[in-house]
Here is the input.
Amino acid sequence: MSEIVEEIRAGLARSLVDAVAGARAAGALKIEELPDFVVETPREKENGDFATNLAMLLARPARMAPRRVAEIITRNLSLTGTWVERVEIAGPGFINFYLDPAWVYQVLPLAEARDGNYGRVNIGRGEKVQVEFVSANPTGLLHMGNARGAALGDSIAAILGFAGYDVTREFYINDAGNQIENFGLSLEARYQQLLGIDMPVPEEGYHGDDLIETVKGFVTCHGDGYLKSSAGERRAALVKYALAEKLAAIRQALADFGINYDVWFSERELHDSGAVTKTLQYLNEKGYLYEKEGALWFKAADFGADKDEVVIRSNGIPTYFAADIAYHKNKFERGFKRVIDIWGADHHGHAARMKGAVAALGCDPDALEVIIMQLVRLYRGGEMVRMSKRTGQYITLEELVEEVGRDAARYFFVIRSADSHLDFDLDLAKAQTNENPVYYIQYAHARICSILRHLQEQGGKMPQPGEVDPGLLREEAELALIRKIVDFPEEVVSAARGLAPQRIARYTHELAGLLHSFYNSYRVIVPDRALCNARLALVNATRITLRNALRLLGVTAPETM
RNA sequence: GUCCCAGUAGCUCAGCGGAUAGAGCAACGGCCUUCUAAGCCGUGGGCCGGGGGUUCGAAUCCCUCCUGGGACGCCA
Here is the structure.
């Protein structure tokens, strides 16, 4: 069974195409080709259940007034065997379709039958997509930017999966390069300090207190033995130990945040396997590299970027960019048709050059989609919480989850589009009041579960599909709720197309609102057995939809609160 | 200086080519002998930053200017 709205929409579109063809054959419309029209749901329900702009688009090519075109189309329209009861021409030339109100009732048995899969669509057709997100330096703990990226990335991946894509979640471990050098120097300084030797943490190093703890652990394992080693050996040992620890901590923090990756990809391995060198060789053979001032540059500007970028420094060490090119080559070699990277706003200059590199590799640059995520600002008590990564003064993901809870954190991070700066109000996220949208939504789910529990306590049973007559649901609040449930698969499509979890976040809030409205006006468990069954089917479908939508956001749907 | 993002109700933001621009919060007034009041109902509230253009139609697309944030490294 296909999705309800889509089926009707497709049916109407077909009828419209036939109508235009008929009118053209009869000589009533003189047009060359069919414009790209839409069948959409009007905002105002007085304008029908569906509407099309077809007549307005045909007005110019047909050299006729839009309403006149609409008349011709409607006269040629065949709607037998559809839900359409009435067609009207309105406004500047819209054709509005009014359906038999019963069309929405189909969703109740559908949602119940599909259960956890209600809302699942198949626009992806099994296409392989990779979502790479967070990819934080394994030199410290996760900060708010990482946290937002985590929530966004996981939710986008979940939505794409629900929309029929074959999704791989991937974390790129930056375990090579300059910051690892700095990391080593910082660890070394802490090591010496702990053992009574004065050595400052370098200016460019990592100043967070967490490194002191890490090194304490190292000392517990290895003692002061490395004081006598060469600096290189000492740093290597410290880095190896600390990387393993930090990575484990990051993994744990993400798992506690409800996020599990399919692949953890090491940058180090790209270097060790020779992939970086090979990729550069390839680009060089193609003539996309050149030397300047002792360094090797990639001609990014030839591929639409604003400037070229260094791939090998004059000291002979490849840059992060070089490794990233090799990484993306590897991604496409693994067969991903779409590669989605989620980066912080501070990397945005890098996006055009990376796409350029993808093009230079002979891949379609549009297959790489870079989502640039704007900054997060934390507020507490109405004041902005100041943070500095350099000094290590920042709130970590663990601390955030501990303070506001996982569900609130996940929800707040996806409520805004990635494009927008996010003001995260810690007090609001913690509030157990109606101001807090997370509780509002979860409460709707818990309320339904409470009704179902109540039913059970009274010895009642959920109705079998044959025992439900949805036609009994005629109240405004009931119809609005059903209509919203019907919309869910469409929302999934929009969210997947736009890589926009905020649409789902919004949807859950609207659906919860309609449930609360209904709940306050009508009782579900009523003596009228038939009405009771219909309403049970309604709230159960709401429960399923709410739970499925929340799952896409990584937010739990509690049964009691 | 160049590039990116944003500018819509008092505040935080949706809407991104369609009909009378929406939601939450805040403000004000109501609703619990009821399946959870962490809830509901009602009331106000807007030159969609300014100016041009494209279009039958613009908050939405184009140009330009203004304001705020960010990026412009042989860091990642």
About this structure: Chain A has four domains: 4-99, 128-171+260-373, 178-256, 434-553. The domain at 4-99 of chain A is CATH 3.30.1360.70 (Gyrase A; domain 2).
